[in-house]
Amino acid sequence: MFNTIFSRKSIREYTGEKISSEDLEKILEAGQAAAVGRGDYESLLLTVISNQDLIDEIEANDSKIMGEESHPFFGAPQIVLISVKPSDTEPSNVEFASVGCIAENISLAATELGVGSCLIWGAIRRALGNEELLKKFELPKGYFPCGAVTLGKTNVKFEAKKNRHQIKIKYID
Ligand SMILES: Cc1cc2nc3c(=O)[nH]c(=O)nc-3n(C[C@H](O)[C@H](O)[C@H](O)COP(=O)(O)O)c2cc1C
In the prediction, which pLDDT does 2 show? Predict the structure, then answer.
């Protein structure tokens, strides 16, 4: 497990090939096993988007908003969109955190299988204002897309590396 944790990294280069359905299933199961605030699993939904036209449309929306050509999914052939049905008008900190836990589990499972993944929040947030695009996510009423994880084959090598990032730690004895 520690090897996988220290090997995980955001992959932004994909071959364009989809992963096997067996690997996809394992990765989704790992997402489903995540910790979720209040144990409210019913309020969460994973949507696997493998439709290239829809992926292109999200990217086109992003390019329009960014004012320059944008490829927020880096050529990944699939994304897992993570949506939540907020208990209030907008998702709360607990609901966003639950989405993050699911995304991390997906990313760790992908790493374990040598599959490329990257958490994508920006392009999903920027899609929220585009009603036509949102309809294409086919979300049940009341669901709100919070983030996504790219999935795809990659030639990038995973290598367990500690201390790649520094989050400060303070001890109070
Ligand atoms: C909540 C969250 C949102 C993120 N959104 C994006 C994103 O929109 N686009 C992107 O390329 N990376 C995104 N990332 C990936 C981070 O940039 C990346 O995890 C961080 O720079 C550390 O690099 P590493 O994942 O390779 O360890 C996101 C990560 C998190 C946790």
Answer: 97
Q: Compute, in angstroms, the gap from residue 121 CA to the centroid of ligand 1.
A: 8
Best mutation site among 14, 102, 120 for ligand 1 pocket (most ligand atoms within 8 Å of CB): 120
CA of 122 to the centre of ligand 1 (A): 9
Mean pLDDT taken over the chain: 97
Distance in Å, CA 11 to ligand 1 centroid:
10
Considering the entire predicted model, what is its pTM? Answer: 0.97
CATH of the domain at 32: 3.40.109.10
Contact status, residue 154 vs residue 15, Cβ threshold 8 Å: yes
Which pLDDT belongs to residue 90? 85
Question: Considering its fold, how many domains does the chain have in total?
Answer: 1
